[in-house]
Amino acid sequence: MVYYPFEKQAAKKPFLHSITSGISNITTLQKFWHCLAFILQYKYPTLVADLFSLNLLYDNSKDRFPTQSYFSKINFSGMSKDNVFDRSTFPGNYHDYPDDDIALQRELELGEALTSTYLDEVFPPNARSLYFDPLNPPKGTIPNESIKWYSISEGTLAHCDDYTKPYWGDVSSPYIRQGALGDCYFINALSLMATQSKFIERTLVSFKYASKGLYTFKFYKSGKWRYIHIDDYIPCRQSGKVHFSRNRNPNETFAMLYEKAYAKLHGCYEAISYGLIEKVLQELTPAAGVQTIRIERLSSQTICDEVWEKLEKATTTQALIGCGRFVEDPLKDNPAFQQGITLG
């Protein structure tokens, strides 16, 4: 998987007038509409980012991608940057600050008013932040009463003695353990970003008030940055061991904090149980472009040259490069190989 910075992609103008309705092949249509959505994003960034999740670019009545007449039903003329079509986020859980300076000013106001550890009332440390329906959690999950929320700054997390610096930026930073939440896609993307400190430093806006349990993050969602303030209460076992993701270094805490901020953005931890690596990479950067190289689809005679050429190009453009393996059922995978290339 190769990540290319968004700034280096060629910008194009919308071409609504050139939409064709004569394509019959479903694969070709799918590629065409994805390309169209990408191009339109330059003019309607907050609209196009999640049109597919709303099925506005898919004609359910005919089980096919739309024709020009269907597309004309969408009124683009009245759209503005304030129109956000994204049902996966919770508007009350994030802030649309104009820039980092305003976010830091708000954090300053919150931090200076604290007399004890910060407690996020919007995303409280209880079952409401774990599941969509706290009274009826998904089957197989840990009961609410078995989850304890311990604070990093209060020193109640097991083996965590130094919380002043959440991201260390050393060779062990990319090593993140997933935990009991099925968000390996998020963990893999975060691990890839952690190989270069500039990407973490961009989205970890501030940890100035880490001693009081207050952190500020931002994610690129629906065409703009969404700012999130969180506390440092983490779901743990009775023993104080972190229940979900954590860094290999117990004193490095950015993985569990990013995971909590991402869960808050989407409403609860259950909401991020499944997802796509590509989507997370886009949300941790200003709409990154991601290229996936499927080794099994390449010719055995040219595979070495093709892969080497792509990797060399990615290295030249300073792109992030990750590697993963895909299996139909991870639970059936031989445990002897689970310490190698990560599943995704």
Descriptive notes:
The chain is of the alpha+beta class. It has three domains: 9-71, no CATH class; 91-283, no CATH class; 293-337, no CATH class. Helix content is 25%, strand content 11%. The protein contains nine helices and ten strands. A hairpin with an 8-residue loop joins strand 4 and strand 5. The longest helix has 15 residues, at 26-40. It starts with a strand and ends in a 23-residue tail after the last strand.
Which regions contain 5 or more consecutive residues with pLDDT less than 50?
1-27, 37-85
Q: Count the helices. How many?
A: 9
Please state the CA-atom Rg, rounded to the nearest Å.
Answer: 22 Å
Strand order of the largest sheet: 9-1-10
End-to-end distance, in Å? 11 Å
Short description:
By secondary structure, the protein is an alpha+beta fold. Helix content is 25%, strand content 11%. It has three domains: 9-71, no CATH class; 91-283, no CATH class; 293-337, no CATH class.
